[in-house]
Amino acid sequence: MDIDRLLRRSASAQPVIALAGLAAGAVFALLGWNAARDAVWAAVTTAVLAFTVISAARDAMRGKTGVDLIAILAMAGALALQEFLAGALLALMLTGGSALETYAARRARRELTALLERAPRIAHRLHDDTVVDIAVDAIATGDVLLVKQGEVTPTDGILVSGIAALDESAITGESRTVTIHTGDKLSSGSKNAGAPFEFRATTRADESTYAGIVRLVREAETSKGAFVRSADRYASRFLVLTLVVAGVAWLVSGQAVRALSVLVVATPCPLLLAAPAAILAGVSYAARYGIILKGGGPLETLGLAKIVLLDKTGTITRGRPRVVAVETFGELDGDELVRLAAAVEQVATHPFAPSILAEARNRGLDTPFPTDAREEAGAGISGVIEGRRVAVGRAGFVAPGAARSARVRAIETRTAAEGSSSAFVSVDGELAGALLLEDPIRAEAPRALHALRKTGIARIVMVTGDHPDVAELVGDAVGVDKVLAERSPEEKVEAVRTTRGAGKTIMVGDGVNDAPALALADVGVAMGARGASAASEAADVVLTADRLEGLVWAVRIAQRTRYIALQSILAGMGMSLVAMVVAALGFLPPAAGAVLQEGIDLAVILNALRALGGGRIVPPRLPGQEELAAELHTVHTHLRPRVEELATLPARLDVLSPDEARNELERMRDFLENELLVHERDEQRTAYPMMARLFHGEDVTGPLVRTHQEIARLVRLFSRLVDQLPPQGPHPGDLRDLRRVLYGLHAILALHFSQEDELYSILDMPSAGSRQSGPSASGPSKPALRPA
């Protein structure tokens, strides 16, 4: 057995031996057996001294120095001066302190340990209609795997059929069940919270999202922070100070026992106990909210940062396009256009396909499977749907012979100005309409950047490769201090290098092109564990929850952890120094000093463990908050396409017959009166009071209530105009007021929904301890808001 293994095995036994020896000596003292008493206490001291000498020698061979020398000198001095009780108390104090430090480390890394322990080891592979259990390392790309209820997905993949309910709290910190559908991607590390499902593996287990998180966690466990390394240096200086004080006390008083008392109250040093416990507790606490820090170094640097640089796509924006408008050019209405486009997109591989399919799902549309599908990379895809050939893509691809009409030119101008994209749709060669897509700004982004400034961040810069016009629009919307547009990866690195001269810098990104800048920054932060692995590997911090608020929480946790660590160190050192002075003056005998120092160590460690929680880093949660957030998201997603029609209907009125126009206007009136206004009233009744409780009565929804009143006024005005239309439909003169109200409703509703989405994103934050109490498999309770 090697020495290291011997030391590890003896570590748990030493406190027991020391306590038993101290107690036995006390019994012998009561019986008057003084010789036996002294012999037992001397034996205990000698045994612990021997192990301490061996451990200190091993550390010295590895280049580590610390305050173990103080403990060695104190126990040796106690034996030499026949202060056997002090020696036994020192032995118990030293071994008990080590045990306490070990407990503190385990307690501090509990969130990290939980992530490691839940990694699956067995997978169920489907082969010839049978299920075969295999090791996760044997999973190959393309395997179809079965995940039973309560099991963890072993690798990343795509759902083969049906739907699946997933608890992703372990990797995102969000405890709400996520429902995915056939063809959707799923991440490893997600727990099946519903019925068994099958998925096709897209990566090997060692290349999966969860495997990457596990590697980050292992690195976090073994990394030592700069603050801890500084503590080691201070400990060496404290050792010198202790020896000087002990020597002076002995020299001035002529009593070696005073020097022994000084050594006793300086053993062990609170500095070495406080810093590692606090830093490790902070790293573990951050993991609870989906923030994986690669050790203590990034945590400490985050607490000192003053400048933040952010990429745009996938960081300030979601990085996932969504359909924001549907333009129709002929007889097809918006729903039919989306249905046909989504049907073809089921077999497409381009990035817009998932967004168009999601839009059809949000509208509750059935999508038949296409036949004779043909895709041209970079141009579009076509296929036969219900006997008609439908094409989706560039205008020149879907309708090669069609002239560029004013509507087409208007869409191209709009998308160029807004930085959005378009997918034109044709049916049997005739241009039928277009789907407009954009990468939306994260609802929480403006509030998150404002919260960053409140933590002490002095400057926020957006660095992006996008065109300046688009970048400036996004930058103005979220409130950054400066926009650096059209920056290549090399120029992003130069921006980080230039900014670092003004203070500690955080760089936030999510793609491969951000990796060099993330690596150069003082702290690189990767958004989302599902993003590019290069970004996650280059970054010092990974926000697995893929929410910008995670950066705010990371900075707050870092600042609080640094404060607690420094507080523990200064308090412990201060109390030890006072005790050393009292001991040097002869007012603190060795035995009493040992008991006092043990109390100091205990207080220091318990204070350091405060970094495990508290501090109101994340707002408190209310009963039903997550369910309400899910309902609000569902309802807004369902209403948004109809709200967008408020902007497209005025243009369509020109091409519709009077009778068709009247039908469309009446349909819109019914939607506004029977769905939109009903939703607004239910929302004001259920969501707004909860927001008031979250903000302790602050009137955060007052402006929204006034917006509701204006929406209701415009709806009444629109209904009155529709009611006054002649039976045969609107005359050209009727359309001016109708268009004015429709455009006004669209403008106010678009702003209103944006404001509500930002405010309601607070309801959707991950909750503390979500991994311990995940959501039920049954999903959210019955909605209080009525989906339209």
TrEMBL record:
Keywords: ATP-binding, Cell membrane, Membrane, Metal-binding, Nucleotide-binding, Translocase, Transmembrane, Transmembrane helix. Residues 773-788 have a biased composition (Low complexity). Residues 119-217 form the P-type ATPase A domain. Its EC number is 7.2.2.12. Its main location: membrane. It is found in: Cell membrane; Membrane. It comes from the Bacteria. GO terms for molecular function: ATP binding; ATP hydrolysis activity; cadmium ion transmembrane transporter activity; metal ion binding; P-type zinc transporter activity. Residues 766-788 are annotated as: Disordered. The chain crosses the membrane at residues 12-32, 39-57, 69-100, 234-253, 259-287, 563-588. GO terms for cellular component: plasma membrane. Residues 630-760 form the Hemerythrin-like domain. It catalyses: Zn(2+)(in) + ATP + H2O = Zn(2+)(out) + ADP + phosphate + H(+). Belongs to the cation transport ATPase (P-type) (TC 3.A.3) family. Type IB subfamily. This is P-type Zn(2+) transporter. The lineage of its organism: Bacteria, Pseudomonadati, Myxococcota, Polyangia, Polyangiales.
